[in-house]
């Protein structure tokens, strides 16, 4: 099992729009594509309170490539993302890391 850590830094004031998009659209599409979220977090104290950090679980990088590509090219996702950004861009930048659990990790 590998975990993907993704951090979305929002345009100031646009974090609520991103959270709404995840709650109302993204998660439903991920379920259709078999994408498994582990947890979602906003920043209480840190560099920016305009961040959404979340983790996804993957069996392998190959699984990630297949499912993520299918999601990103899904016409329903493309249309929903465009609609959610009618009032302007939401995300300024995204960072991603792939993590492997240690032998003593609670998540395996």
Automatic annotation (TrEMBL):
Residues 3-105 form the NIPSNAP domain. It comes from the Bacteria. Pfam families: NIPSNAP. InterPro entries: Dimeric_a/b-barrel, NIPSNAP. This is NIPSNAP family protein.
